[in-house]
Amino acid sequence: MSLASRFLVDPGGFPASFGWTPWGRRRLGITLGDETYLLEGLAAHQVDLLASRFGAFCLGGDPRPGPVVRVSRVPEAAFLPPPAPPWVHTLDFDHRAESTAWVGVREAGFLHLGPRLEVSMWTAEGEGDMFGRAVENVLRLAVAYSLLHAGGLLFHAACVVDGDEAVVFPGLSGAGKSTTSRLSAAEGRMVLSDDIVGVTPGQAGFHVVALPFGSEFRFAGPSGTRVPLRTLCTLEKAEAIEVAGLKPSAAVGLALACTPYVNHDPIRADRLFENIERLVRAVRLRTLRFPRHGPIWSALQQGVL
Prior knowledge:
CATH class of the largest domain: Alpha Beta
Order of helices and strands: EEHEEEEEEHEEHEEEEEHHE
Shape: globular
Oligomer: single chain
Number of domains: 2
CATH topology of the largest domain: Rossmann fold
CATH architecture of the largest domain: 3-Layer(aba) Sandwich
Strand content: 25-35%
């Protein structure tokens, strides 16, 4: 089965057949981690939409140079009809030494992984939430590769700040990330995200990089916020609260399962595994068993996580 045969009328022609047709002549800088992504080819209403979605992470005026994201329109007729709802958002990938290409429902992209990261994205959706989600999908993927190259990781995880340090709770859908985030917020803890977390190495260990990605909890900024990472913690639902250790081998498996996009890239598997191993050696490893109605933090001895 060729790339995007589930999504495109002419999968063999992608990406060459898509060309480059910008929506407009506007551009917008969005700072994510250590990079400012410069989106080009936007219409005025799209700039307003993205500025509303990403808030303080957007830069006005003439943003400083960074990875370029070329945003292009493509006719809806280039795509096969979407599956009947409800459908799960999935992408087809083509991984190569210098690039990664992907196609999904009414969206596609190409990531050039040379010395300078360059991204092209195409979407048939030019307005509203579908356009905003398409751009966010591309930015998440670009950040995942950028962090991987820098020795870090993008996690499917919740992140809660305890004191002046962060606890990251990786997990796939249904693991308890949203519940943990709600309970933590109700107890006065800062929640950096309930869905996507960036982790990057520093001189004194790893840090969580605040990103404007999330579901119920989306960090509002400022964009340069970093919090030292203390603990990597898996979640288990239980009748009573309990904290237990987590074996390094189990932590590695959890991290592999929860690092989206790059964990399906066989060409960069060695780098991903190396980054995970360094992280696992550098932080606390815990398991949190908790009742769905809480509480969490007030029921724990301070600093146990």
